[in-house]
Amino acid sequence: MGRAFEFRKGRKMKRWAAMAKTFTRIGKDIVMAVKEGGPNPDANSRLRAVMQNAKAANMPKDNVERAIKNATNKDTANYKEILFEGYAPHGIAILIETASDNNNRTVANIRSYFNKCNGTLGTQGSVEFMFDHTCNFRIPKEGLDAEELELELIDFGAEEVFEDEDGILIYAPFNSFGTIQKELESRNIEILSSGFERIPQITKQLTPAQVADVEKLIEKIEEDDDVMNVYHTMEEQEEA
């Protein structure tokens, strides 16, 4: 198995699952998708993907339809995606994806979290190169063989295909998203969810006390309403 498998296995998804902001995050994704490509999912692949993710997160259909309708209103705030980079204590690189309708507020907030937790907010490009920007798809495993599918999808950009308890996961470079989405749809393979992740190329092992220092900063950042995802180079701890 490759780095995508190890990343998925080690990442503490419980942090997001426990947060009530999941629907808020999906709502922002809907607004950005509609503003970019219109309200018709058949003609907007990004919106189609967000709607699949909403279904996977058990977001009520009425909420999704209302969010799409609201997004077409010209008075609805337009969110801008901004990437923040920096270092947590103990040399751990941090990459933060945000979606904000007020850049000044977001910058001030993110800077304050780093300052309060002995971190350093970096400049553009200071740590992004340490992460591979990937896309991923989750599909049902019934009737499909992960190894065979991997061979078939290599030509479309797939780099890793593997099974977990919830289905088959496909990982590919960021730029392969549209190509793989189109190929899966042409084969009538249901896409349960899809998205993008930044996988650290190298991780660093810390002591429990050092981990607590880094976790303190990560938790503060993740509580911010403008924050969509946080990635880091700290080696994930095994669950007890």
TrEMBL record:
**UniProt-listed Gene3D superfamilies:** 1.10.10.200, 3.30.70.980
Q: Where is this chain's protein located in or outside the cell?
A: Cytoplasm
Identify the residues that the record assigns to the TACO1/YebC-like second and third domain, covering every copy: 79-234
**Has keyword DNA-binding?**
yes
Q: Which GO terms describe its biological process?
A: regulation of DNA-templated transcription
UniProt xrefs under InterPro entries: Integrase-like_N, TACO1_YebC-like_2nd/3rd_dom, TACO1_YebC_N, Transcrip_reg_TACO1-like, Transcrip_reg_TACO1-like_dom3, YebC-like
Looking at the UniProt record for this protein, which Gene Ontology cellular component terms does it annotate, in alphabetical order?
cytosol
Annotated ranges, domain TACO1/YebC-like N-terminal: 4-73
Recall the GO molecular function terms of this protein's record.
DNA binding
Which keywords does the record carry?
Answer: Cytoplasm, DNA-binding, Transcription, Transcription regulation
- Main location class: cytoplasm
Protein family membership? Belongs to the TACO1 family.
Which PANTHER family does the record match to this protein? Answer: TRANSCRIPTIONAL REGULATORY PROTEIN YEBC-RELATED, TRANSLATIONAL ACTIVATOR OF CYTOCHROME C OXIDASE 1
The molecule here is called Probable transcriptional regulatory protein EOD40_16515
Q: Which organism is it from?
A: Flavobacterium sufflavum
